[in-house]
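This week, study the protein below.
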Amino acid sequence: MSPSSSAPPPGAQPGPIGRAGDEQTPRAALLASEARRIGLPAEACRALGPVPAWRPRRHLQWGHHTLALGERTLVMGVVNVTDLSLSGPGHGDDVMAAVAHAEALVAAGANLLDVGGESTRPGAEPVPEALERARVGAAVAAIAARLPTVPLSVDTRRASVAAAALDAGAGAINDVSGLRHDPELATLAARRGAALILGHWEPARSWPAASRPEAEAAAVAAVQAGLRWSVERALTAGCPPDQLAVDPGLGFGKPPRVSLALLRALPSLQALGRPVVVGPSRKGFIGRVLGPAAQLGWEGTAAAVALAIAGGADIVRVHDVARLTRVVRMSDAIVAAVDA
């Protein structure tokens, strides 16, 4: 039989290949054709398992920017305007230093910038609200003037700080508490048309030991439930669905084993129907695995970023943008054949 013949060889069992209901997709049709050509039974192809779901194509409305998600992973660079940050340079009141850092991040490949004025590292002293508002507002205004085409977000749990940042040019609010600290953030986002990233952070929660499958599943389910609560609260406040994203909150009061379990179970967050933001950069669970000296390095974060992308993350929030942008590009090429 010639290679171009479409007739199945003797013994071949033509039939659906891949997931139920996807027989008409280009990949399923190609796989079915190849199976018939080499005489491989359809059952053998099905034994290979379905192609894991990656990310749906969708849009996230980010102020006056519209982010196209699903094809490429977007990189969010971090700009800290604090006196001290464990995870990156803190620029305090030095607006020009913050602008220079923002420019460097964009030049290195950042698609988005997240500006924060309060450190959330363990043991950090609270920042007075007025000081956080002044620092963030000044930094966002200066960065927006210098980089007008770059979407900006403000990393804050306070509505007054978020309002100042939106006035200054930010298009999104990154609330690591998922509306548990200041519920007015949802009303503000709805009124101003800002995107809202809902993180998971419940400091008082008692986490189960995630060393057994059932305990790991319970921890992941708790995060899913918490994020679902945040999404429902935002929707009730009037936020449109296309302005909401979720973040599992790696670190943020979770034992290292829970953060690692969340990375393994990241595809399950697709059930929430919202874009997924993941911020593994320099988190404590990396230091627990590789040692404290390696926590602020890039290797552990690179591994977490790559696996987050394989798990369906739409946006990764990182500090070392120059190195990790290359990790993101390579991961996209492997997982989604982008630029391959």
